[in-house]
UniProtKB/TrEMBL annotation, chain A:
<dbReference type="InterPro" id="IPR051278">
    <property type="entry name" value="HdrB/HdrD_reductase"/>
</dbReference>
<feature type="domain" description="Cysteine-rich">
    <location>
        <begin position="3"/>
        <end position="85"/>
    </location>
</feature>
<dbReference type="InterPro" id="IPR004017">
    <property type="entry name" value="Cys_rich_dom"/>
</dbReference>
<keyword id="KW-0560">Oxidoreductase</keyword>
<feature type="domain" description="Cysteine-rich">
    <location>
        <begin position="149"/>
        <end position="242"/>
    </location>
</feature>
<protein>
    <submittedName>
        <fullName>CoB--CoM heterodisulfide reductase</fullName>
        <ecNumber>1.8.98.1</ecNumber>
    </submittedName>
</protein>
<dbReference type="Pfam" id="PF02754">
    <property type="entry name" value="CCG"/>
</dbReference>
<dbReference type="GO" id="GO:0051912">
    <property type="term" value="F:CoB--CoM heterodisulfide reductase activity"/>
</dbReference>
Automatic annotation (TrEMBL), chain B:
<keyword id="KW-0479">Metal-binding</keyword>
<dbReference type="GO" id="GO:0051539">
    <property type="term" value="F:4 iron, 4 sulfur cluster binding"/>
</dbReference>
<dbReference type="Pfam" id="PF13183">
    <property type="entry name" value="Fer4_8"/>
</dbReference>
<keyword id="KW-0408">Iron</keyword>
<dbReference type="InterPro" id="IPR051460">
    <property type="entry name" value="HdrC_iron-sulfur_subunit"/>
</dbReference>
<dbReference type="GO" id="GO:0046872">
    <property type="term" value="F:metal ion binding"/>
</dbReference>
<keyword id="KW-0560">Oxidoreductase</keyword>
<dbReference type="InterPro" id="IPR009051">
    <property type="entry name" value="Helical_ferredxn"/>
</dbReference>
<dbReference type="GO" id="GO:0016491">
    <property type="term" value="F:oxidoreductase activity"/>
</dbReference>
């Protein structure tokens, strides 16, 4: 099997250890990667979507066309890329007049959007395409005894109409919990499971307000399920939880820290990857969790 | 002492503002009945922002453009789309917020970070870009540049042509190569 890796910006430049982890995971699960050479930013919300609807979709469509020409689906570890590109495809497929307008723009670069490929989120892809059993059978280490607080991320949940392989009930997500449980950990429900991480526009606009959401979420995870580890399905959520906790501790907003990783990083570790390469840029202290990886005989 | 309540004279609202927002992408704006389901689901409410989806829509409906231009809340929207999911009238409140941003940009009321993001998108094809990322990438065993517009001049040119074909080109927010606006077909 072959997939196109839609890397995006944050993964490539901010957390390339996550890029490394994704490459390791797909290789270990015998999935071939096409790099979709020439891809760009999705584009993210604060840029073209905030300027011009057709311009937003034209840039997204150009990314889709790279996949279409290679006849592969795009897979991303970033919720924002998944959200922006899913909305692009949803709107272009639903509104022929919009598709016509975008294709008129694309003529200038000699391209045409057909809509024959799709964007997929890594966690959904692992759950639906690889499957829990195949993941379990490939593990070299497990995480028995570890309690995980999951953070699926907004952009894998809503608007559910735009996501072809999302949750059955997006207000009660289960996929990331089951993926974590496949690694031998427990991943219980907690009351703030669908709360927003406050990254993106909110963090850029008002960091204190953004940290309020982080605190609400972390407190819920700590008090209700005593989480040893926070696992996200989105690179933006990862960056928020990995970088917000140190300044929040300094300002005495919290007096604890929950180590934070993306699911793809955690899976890479359980498949035997070198921690320096797949979680080497973490700011939260992962030593405790790394010590809990148990070798499977 | 209780805070003074500001009373708006809604007859002073900007005529045609709703039409402008609808043209900028919020086609179902007038279907809003202010039921507040969107507000109940909005993380901006939880974080304490004054203008969240429901209030933004109401302000637009009564023509209070200046209020929305003066407040940074529209830029704090997380694009989480909870509002779109729960709206019983299919107004797509998130789409209204984005249309409001498009209106604000036309008045040059946008945050510096948005300008920087657009400039970075045009310059390298990535809204988030760190020039020193190459060293970190190499350290963990990846090529200095990813296989994207950051390392592919032809692909970057394609992207810039599309940006020049969009509304961005007439706004003057970022420096753009005006020669790329005239590309019609297959001249890349």
């Amino acid at each position: 099997m072959k997939v196109g890796f839609f890397i995006g910006c944050n993964t490539a430049f901010n957390r390339p250890d996550l890029e490394k982890a994704f490459r390791f995971v797909l290789n270990a699960l015998n999935v071939e990667i096409d790099d979709l050479d020439g891809q760009s930013c999705c584009p993210t919300w604060g840029t073209m979507p905030s300027v011009d609807e057709a311009g937003w979709y034209a840039l997204g469509a150009r990314n889709f066309i790279i996949s279409e020409e290679k006849n592969v689906d795009m897979v991303t570890v970033c919720g924002s890329c998944y959200g922006s590109l899913s909305e692009t495809k949803y709107k272009l497929d639903k509104k022929p007049e919009l598709k016509e307008k975008v294709n008129e723009m694309l003529k200038a670069i000699g391209k045409e959007y057909k809509g024959t490929t799709r964007i997929r989120l890594a966690t959904n892809f692992l759950y639906n395409e690889i499957g829990i059993e195949r993941i379990k059978n490939a593990l070299k280490y497990n995480l028995e005894g570890v309690t995980i607080g999951v953070q699926p991320g907004c952009h894998s949940l809503w608007p559910s109409e735009a996501y072809l392989e999302g949750e059955r009930d997006p207000f009660h997500p289960v996929m990331l919990r089951e993926l974590c449980e496949a690694l031998g950990a427990s991943a219980p429900y907690y009351s703030r499971i669908i709360d927003c991480c406050g990254m993106g526009g909110m963090r850029s606009t008002n960091v204190e307000a953004s940290y309020k959401l982080v605190k609400t979420k972390l407190d819920s995870m700590k008090d209700e399920i005593k989480a040893d580890l926070l696992v996200t399905g989105c690179s933006s959520c990862l960056i928020q939880f990995d970088t917000a906790q140190a300044p929040m501790k300094k300002d005495k907003m919290i007096d604890y820290e929950i180590p934070s990783v993306h699911y793809v990083q955690l899976l890479a570790l359980c498949l035997g990857a070198d921690p320096q390469q797949v979680v080497g840029l973490s700011t939260t202290d992962l030593n405790g969790i790394l010590g809990k990886l148990k070798k499977i005989n | 002492m209780a805070e003074a309540i500001e009373v708006l004279n809604i007859s002073e609202g900007e005529l045609g503002f709703s039409d402008e927002i609808m043209k900028l992408g919020a086609e179902e704006l007038l279907d809003c009945i202010q039921c507040a389901k969107c507000a109940a689901a909005c993380p901006m409410v939880l974080a304490g922002f004054e203008f969240f989806n429901k209030r933004i829509i109401q302000s637009i409906l009564i023509g209070q453009k200046e209020i929305l231009l003066d407040d940074s809340s529209i830029w704090a929207c997380q694009a989480c789309n909870r509002c779109t999911e729960v709206c019983p009238r299919k107004v797509e409140p998130f789409g209204v917020v984005m249309a409001m941003r498009r209106s604000a940009i036309r008045e040059f009321a946008l945050p510096t970070l948005a300008v920087e993001g657009l400039k970075s998108l045009y310059d390298v094809g990535h809204a988030v870009y760190f020039s020193n990322a190459g060293e970190i990438r190499k350290k963990i065993g990846l090529p200095e540049k990813p296989p994207t517009t950051a390392s592919n001049a032809q692909a970057l040119k394609e992207l810039r042509i599309l940006m020049n074909k969009s509304a961005l080109s007439s706004l003057g927010i970022i420096p753009m190569d005006s020669g790329l606006s005239d590309v019609t077909c297959c001249e890349v």
